[in-house]
Design a protein that fits this description.
Number of strands: 13
Helix content: 10-25%
Oligomer: single chain
Structural class: alpha/beta
Strand content: 25-35%
Distance between the termini: 11 Å
Length: about 290
């Protein structure tokens, strides 16, 4: 489904309660976490779903309404008299015009990152299939996120250990970023996963670029193949679920790594098809 195919109605007002920079000092990327209060009694969403944020584009580009999707980074807020709250992770982005070659600020991301507490946003949704939590607490979970793709897994892991509880299967979280400074929720400024490090079933590891200043690709091969025996064992276990979130480019990188691990691209294509057919490989890409 193309971005322009997502509906822009109904719309809801959401007030910014807080905005916080969550990338470490010195990082090239600016990533902010915003907490929004939705101006309606109910706003139901599930882990892994996204909301749309509507922003009026610059007049020089026609001034048309632009919608971008952002994955919710928390579990649904508790019921009660309080209005629903949602937590978003937004990276301030620029883009290069294909025709002129000039660099422009991304309309939606810059607008959102510039909002202050008390400001109001226009939102839509929720959209997308959620990451389902297996009913079997012995199920294994391999969660792979690129950049802001870590957002749904913040909510997912929180739900597993705080709401479901007594999880017996392995939970392996792999987060990819260009450098350690650009890791989200796993840096010196904010390490939201630290509360789960004492859980026997939980382990988090990272895939970084070996030379971030040279724009080298993220070393998925090293991070995954270093644990190839465990990961291949998990893939062969019918109780393992793999959830992938992030930019579309993560798909090709992971396909290459897993093809190397299985010995050929054909072997991995067949294996991945089997996992998808069984609902054990789910991608949330943008």
């Amino acid at each position: 489904m193309r971005l322009e195919d997502y509906p822009t109605e109904p719309r809801y007002d959401a007030t910014v309660l807080s905005t916080e920079l969550i990338t470490g000092e010195g990082a090239d990327a600016e990533v902010r976490e915003l907490v929004l209060e939705v101006d309606r009694d109910e706003f139901n969403f599930e882990i892994g779903q996204s909301i749309g944020v509507l922003v009026e584009g610059p007049q020089e580009f026609g001034g048309n309404l632009r919608q971008r999707l952002y994955t919710v980074a928390d579990t649904p807020s508790a019921k009660g008299d309080a209005k629903p709250q949602i937590r978003l992770v937004v990276r301030r982005c620029d883009y290069i015009d294909d025709y002129s070659g000039e660099q422009y600020p991304g309309v939606n991301s810059n607008y959102i990152c510039d909002r202050k507490p008390g400001d109001t946003l226009s939102i839509t949704g929720p959209f997308g299939l959620p990451f389902k939590v297996p009913q079997d607490k012995k199920a294994n979970l391999l969660l792979i996120g690129l950049g802001t793709g870590i957002a749904p897994f913040r909510a997912f892991v929180k739900h597993i250990y705080q709401d479901v509880g007594d999880w017996e299967g392995k939970v392996r979280l792999l987060h990819g970023a260009r450098s350690g400074l650009e890791l989200i929720y796993m840096n010196d400024k904010r390490d939201d996963f630290a509360r789960y490090y004492d859980e026997e079933t939980f382990e988090a590891f990272q895939a970084l670029s070996p030379r971030p200043n040279w724009a080298d690709p993220i070393a998925w091969d090293y991070a995954i193949e270093e644990r190839s025996e465990e990961i291949l064992g998990m893939l062969d276990d019918e109780h393992t679920y793999v959830y992938v979130a992030g930019l579309v480019k993560i798909r090709d990188a992971l396909d290459k790594v897993f093809a190397n691990m299985l010995g050929s691209a054909d072997s991995w294509t067949k294996k991945k098809a089997e996992l998808k057919e069984a609902g054990r490989w789910v991608e949330l890409l943008y």
